[in-house]
Amino acid sequence: MKHIYAFEDISEYEKYQEIIQRFSKRLNEYQVLLEEKYALVDKPKGVVWTSAEAATSIFSDLPIPAFTNKDTIYISPDVKAWRKLFMQQLDGKDLPNIQGFYEQISENHILTILGHELTHHSDLFLDEFENEREGSIWFEEGMCQYLPRKLLLTDREFNEVSTIEKELVDVFTRKYGNRSLDEFGSKSYTASLSSIMFDYWRSFLAIKYLVENRFQNNANLVFKEYHKWDKEGRKISLTEYFKLEKISL
After folding, report:
1. Using one digit for the tens of pLDDT, what is the confidence trace for 40-54?
2. Closest by Cα among 158, 146, 169 to 215
3. Closest Cα partner for 137 from 177, 197, 202, 182?
4. Model-level pTM?
């Protein structure tokens, strides 16, 4: 993959040069794992490294400074900007434990966001990323959260972010809890950040539950069952197929 730098001046690039180098090295290692185990064949053409402001106001109008546009990944390496964004998703709620986690969130967690975007390119996903993904958006987004976290974080980091997002789901279920996982994305990106992220938190936890509780810690077995659902004609929703409707995530 090519690496493109889109900063306003050289000093801004120099500010992030070292973290970009660290991320690029580990991204290459993660790419090899995806190629070997998770059918990454058609890789994106490049990564555009830019500021959080440019990512959300010039390259897109999304509120999150990491996304894929066609075959190019855009991301900000600004850890402070990511910490600020993660705090915003709390909607001003007084959650000291969660606030403390996000105020100190590490580079590794930001790296998994880059890994998330790369994972979308796996051929194990049935629907084209740029097209309408019928009934399985939560599966793809959840797996794109789960795999880089499982493979790039330490066990302690993985368990910690899992606990934090479980707490967030518990807190925000009072507000958004009537939605089905199958409705992932039904709230547009003009909705509150917590509403957007609620879908991601639950999708990650659903995949984590499937992999670790139902499929012997083997993500490929989950993919196999997902493909079976598709081959059988998608007669019921994917959440019904996996019997997730009554599971407390």
Report:
1. 999 999 999 999 999
2. 146
3. 182
4. 0.94
